[in-house]
Amino acid sequence: MKNLTSMLDIQKADTSKIDQVDFNNLVFGQVFTDHMFECDYKNGSWQTPVIKPYGNLSMPPSARVFHYGQAVFEGMKAYKDQDDQIWLFRPEENFNRINKSSERLAIPEFPKEYFFEGLETLLKMDSAWIQKGFGNSLYIRPFVMATEAGVSASPAGEYKFMIICSPAQAYYSGEVRVKFSEKFSRAADGGVGYAKAAGNYGAQFYPTNLAKEEGFQQIVWTDASTHEYLEEAGTMNVFFRIGDKLVTAPTSDRILDGVTRKSVITLAEDHHIDVEVRRVSVQEILDAAKSGELKEMFGSGTATVINPILGFGFKGEKYELPKIEDSYAKFFKDTLMKIQYNEAEDKFGWRHQVK
Ligand SMILES: *Cc1c(COP(=O)(O)O)cnc(C)c1O
């Protein structure tokens, strides 16, 4: 069936899987909705985008993505308010960023109207999967990969852009303590750190496993050349509260320009919280922890919004942060979520309604 009002080809699932899903016991990223969005690139252009039942792909084993990791992705969420209206949070940022990531991986840019038409149609078709209630959401995973057959180490001429969606509950990642990286690096100058390139994440698993053996849940990466400056965590930017001042590293070609990060900075400025965007040295944080000036650390990212960090380790020493009453982490999480769920004024025009 061709949808007459749009450029999309829509193939509806015969039945829904939704009745088999226990929405009170969701494991993050395990269950997917009834439909998915798919658009192929060949002969120099993006073909007619399709929405079809969620299902397996069939690809040649020689497809470039399997050999050279020519793939990028995004992470975003849809929220439902008490009146069943569906909202996205700053989706243009994700759209722009996936194309920025694609450019770095020599993947052709994806057209904006395909992205929004495809995403919004998909969300409306699978809207029953977006559960109401503060903390419930639909995690959205757009991604692009090189599908052309052939193992020559060169950019592919064929790609697939897809969007899949997974219902998510309020994400509680457990207590998070981090290790400041002393040896391993995530990104280097001139590299791909700023892109959500698939390989950036696969390369973190091994060092993170080693950190887990030492009792940490995540690594805060330090700059690759000196390991003296703190950059970001696995899929989160990182903030430090020293006294009542908030400090975070500037974005660069090594650090991902997080949507949550920039929203936190804007909210901090709006609430007259002193915020400094500058390099943060490991030494400064060690000193602040020892003097008691280090009051909080937290990560920011779409999946968890704000994730408090309870302690950190560096060179065999472990540091615990004090318990705090008027936590910035809690303030930013509540403030951001109220905006996301249409429960607070949207002063900055961040909400985008799916109609
Ligand atoms: C996705 C991601 C973030 C967070 O970005 P948001 O837009 O806030 O979700 C931070 N760092 C890295 C490395 C990431 O991949």
UniProtKB/TrEMBL annotation:
Keywords: Amino-acid biosynthesis, Aminotransferase, Branched-chain amino acid biosynthesis, Pyridoxal phosphate, Transferase. Pathway: Amino-acid biosynthesis; L-valine biosynthesis; L-valine from pyruvate: step 4/4; Amino-acid biosynthesis; L-leucine biosynthesis; L-leucine from 3-methyl-2-oxobutanoate: step 4/4; Amino-acid biosynthesis; L-isoleucine biosynthesis; L-isoleucine from 2-oxobutanoate: step 4/4. Gene3D superfamilies: 3.30.470.10, D-amino Acid Aminotransferase, subunit A, domain 2. GO terms for biological process: isoleucine biosynthetic process; L-leucine biosynthetic process; L-valine biosynthetic process. Its cofactor is pyridoxal 5'-phosphate. GO terms for molecular function: L-isoleucine-2-oxoglutarate transaminase activity; L-leucine-2-oxoglutarate transaminase activity; L-valine-2-oxoglutarate transaminase activity. It is an enzyme of class 2 (transferase). Pfam families: Aminotran_4 (PF01063). Its EC number is 2.6.1.42. It catalyses: L-valine + 2-oxoglutarate = 3-methyl-2-oxobutanoate + L-glutamate; L-leucine + 2-oxoglutarate = 4-methyl-2-oxopentanoate + L-glutamate; L-isoleucine + 2-oxoglutarate = (S)-3-methyl-2-oxopentanoate + L-glutamate. InterPro entries: Aminotrans_IV, Aminotrans_IV_CS, Aminotransferase-like, B_amino_transII, BCAT-like_C, BCAT-like_N, BCAT_family. Acts on leucine, isoleucine and valine. Belongs to the class-IV pyridoxal-phosphate-dependent aminotransferase family. This is Branched-chain-amino-acid aminotransferase. It comes from Christiangramia flava JLT2011.
